[in-house]
Specification:
With 274 residues, the chain is mainly alpha-helical. 67% of the residues lie in helices and 0% in strands.
Length: 274
């Protein structure tokens, strides 16, 4: 039996959609096999802290190794400044304390009022990629406005944001070295965007991981050959050099990731690594 052209196109589209789903179905099946853990009220805080520390570890190792290996030292944005163990330990303690005392109660309330639903079918890969990018763009805009406001209003800066600027030369563990208001505000932005877009739980998890990784990379203090800003063309993404300059100069580069908002608002400064 011959199929008409519209029927063939519809069948081809359906097969493409099935193939895109199958790309992630094995991963989603692995995740849902851990359903009791995923639906536990402890999972969000464990997921967040474990991912954060895991992403920090390579840079912590780099901080210790690059002081002894000149070939690594050339990638340090501020090579005259290296974090000590005495600087790192308080950051870890503060992050663990904030996760237990502040983040866990908030995520517990979220778990109580909005239990997680785990669908059987994985999302399509193109849809996941698109929604992750949109979530990042939304977060970038929200953080830019929050950040700009907390620098332009002296009371907000001194009361809430100044603690994050304790270290002029950033290292990975300074990513979450901040006050409670800042931590909860940015956490709210990250959590609400996938909800507004109606994202699949797998998309939500991937976005959280990407967002944590990019935040850590921003504060790493390293300009590596494979850094994200080197992979995104046309200077659209600032990355670690962009954010490092913000901590050094205070009065520019307020967006965490992309450069377009700073360029539009006249707060963009070219990173010193360039």
């Amino acid at each position: 039996m011959n199929c008409s052209l519209p029927d063939r196109l519809l069948l081809s589209y359906a097969m493409d959609g099935l193939r895109d789903r199958l790309c992630l179905q094995s991963l989603w099946d692995f995740v849902t096999a851990k359903e009791p853990l995923i639906k536990s009220p402890f999972f969000p805080v464990l997921f967040s802290f474990t991912a954060y520390m895991a992403f920090c570890l390579p840079y912590i190792a780099l901080d210790f190794l690059s002081t002894r290996l000149p070939n690594l030292r050339k990638y340090k944005i501020q090579p005259q400044n290296y974090p000590t163990l005495g600087m790192m330990v308080p950051c870890i303690i503060q992050s663990a304390y904030h996760h237990v005392v502040f983040i866990f109660p908030v995520t517990f309330l979220h778990w109580y009022w909005r239990p997680m639903n785990l669908p059987v079918i994985a999302p399509e890969l193109p849809k996941v990629l698109l929604e992750v990018v949109v979530c990042l763009l939304l977060f970038d805009f929200e953080y830019f406005l929050w950040h700009l406001l907390h620098h332009k209003v002296p009371w907000l800066y001194k009361t809430f944001h100044k603690v994050h600027h304790k270290h002029v030369s950033t290292f990975a563990l300074t990513t979450q070295y901040s006050g409670v208001w800042e931590l909860l505000s940015l956490g709210f932005f990250a959590a609400i965007n996938p909800v507004l877009l109606g994202c699949h739980p797998l998309t939500e998890m991937i976005f959280f991981l990407v967002n944590i990784w990019l935040s850590v990379e921003d504060h790493s203090g390293y300009d590596l050959p494979w850094s994200t800003h080197r992979l995104v063309p046309f200077g659209l993404y600032g990355g670690a050099p962009h954010h490092d300059l913000h901590h050094l100069k205070f009065k520019s580069n307020y967006a965490p990731y992309f450069t377009h908002w700073d360029k539009l608002f006249g707060t963009f400064t070219e990173s010193h690594s360039n």
